[in-house]
Amino acid sequence: MAEIEMIEYECELRVRYADTDAMGIVYYSKYLEYFEVARTEMLRACGLPYAELESMGFYLPVMDASIKYYRGARYDDMLRVRVSMPSNPSPRLSISYRVMDAATNELLAEGTTTLAFVDAKTGKPTRPPERYRNALREWNNKTSTA
Amino acid sequence: MAEIEMIEYECELRVRYADTDAMGIVYYSKYLEYFEVARTEMLRACGLPYAELESMGFYLPVMDASIKYYRGARYDDMLRVRVSMPSNPSPRLSISYRVMDAATNELLAEGTTTLAFVDAKTGKPTRPPERYRNALREWNNKTSTA
Amino acid sequence: MAEIEMIEYECELRVRYADTDAMGIVYYSKYLEYFEVARTEMLRACGLPYAELESMGFYLPVMDASIKYYRGARYDDMLRVRVSMPSNPSPRLSISYRVMDAATNELLAEGTTTLAFVDAKTGKPTRPPERYRNALREWNNKTSTA
Amino acid sequence: MAEIEMIEYECELRVRYADTDAMGIVYYSKYLEYFEVARTEMLRACGLPYAELESMGFYLPVMDASIKYYRGARYDDMLRVRVSMPSNPSPRLSISYRVMDAATNELLAEGTTTLAFVDAKTGKPTRPPERYRNALREWNNKTSTA
After folding, report:
1. Of A119, B96, B125, D63, which sits 20 to 30 A from B10 (CA to CA)?
2. pLDDT for A48-83, tens place per residue?
3. Is D21 in the active site?
4. Is C29 at the interface with chain D, CB within 8 A?
5. Could you tell me how many CB contacts below 8 A there are between chain A and chain C?
6. pTM for this structure?
């Protein structure tokens, strides 16, 4: 089957006081940190913690990011971040995010980021490590047989 | 003359150690803070400090943001942020940013944000204050006669 | 019994990439955010979420903070923050913190903060609300009968 | 002459919206960032930019920090940070800070940090580089002849 499955993951996190600003809502750049938390946990769930990628000599810098804000989250709100990414082993990871109020399910923000594998020493773009491609393959097998 | 002039402004800021991450470059969300610094100074240069808008009962929350990263800035780099926005008094401010290495002029990142006037009490979208429209009008007059 | 019991609480949190700096360790100010997370959860566990205190018209600004750093935490480390505070209903909360590597139990940092009840409207110091003193009293009763 | 001169430096910085929290004042950990900006500029003024120290193979991690808060700074406030340190070439830098409202000279916060030279490769404490001791010596000579 030629179709590319989507890897999907969901995690919860609580808004810190440090995240808020004088408008009483979460400062707009903080959502990119929430995105980071969510994709980190997604990669871990795929069997490939990002910290391990780094120790193998790879970095995954962000190439671009975009975000739309619908309603500002507030201090102590519990948020649910839904993150998804195509499961093909591309050198670029196109990741989508939806941030929801965990209590009401209201959509607060949504966005995308593109990450690229680079060699940690040279900083140059590089192919994803074999270990990463295997992790995605396994994930796909598990999903299609399920 | 029907053409809408662009307001342009440029400011410099230095990368703090706090801005960097374990890759040795500026963490990706920090550029949105740099954008904030630049648009704050642009509004001040237009004769309308953002703090004054707040004391008049307005907020200018960000509705969306997008950014492309070309090369990571490093600790202690001096950055130049060029910011521009159409001078028509719309309830939505469409602002563009270019972040450059001030020493080499290399483009490091560029992006956009949309901000909208809301009533600070109700949180509802609202017309920009008279004071803001006047400031833009004056800015336009000064520019066209120059 | 005249002795003042200590309220103790422990929570875990994971180091984000956003928390690290170019030395490869957590930036020194971030521990104060970890302190905030820990005391927020301690207050919640005492039956008095901080968000509720705010909605009752109180703020709890920090009056002072101190911290010693023993070893830098790294990206993706799971940290355990142990927080404690005397259970007497003082207008000043003297809170102590110990940050440990959750995997090895190694002490990474320890510190203190003092917080004070202020009236959210006037910003002036004020007595803690009845609701807060009751929460501590209940906590003490539960503990001494246990 | 046995007396140790104090190196003193002063810089100004403006409070960003990103620095504020839902209380409408600067979040308490942000002052440690302001401290970093001030000591960075003090070292640069001494003829020894911190970035240069790093490129020579040294890190200067923070060993401890303490701070007292007197009044919360607000968005767009211009702050003056006065920083001072003994000019003897110790492996530990004991630095003091005073944060003032630049407009009124009111003291908002004051604190201290201790930094220590470590070898960037091993992470072990080490003697300050010759280059650093020379910079302080020159600074002292300039000051005493002045």
Report:
1. B125
2. 899 999 999 999 999 999 999 999 999 999 999 999
3. yes
4. yes
5. 30
6. 0.95
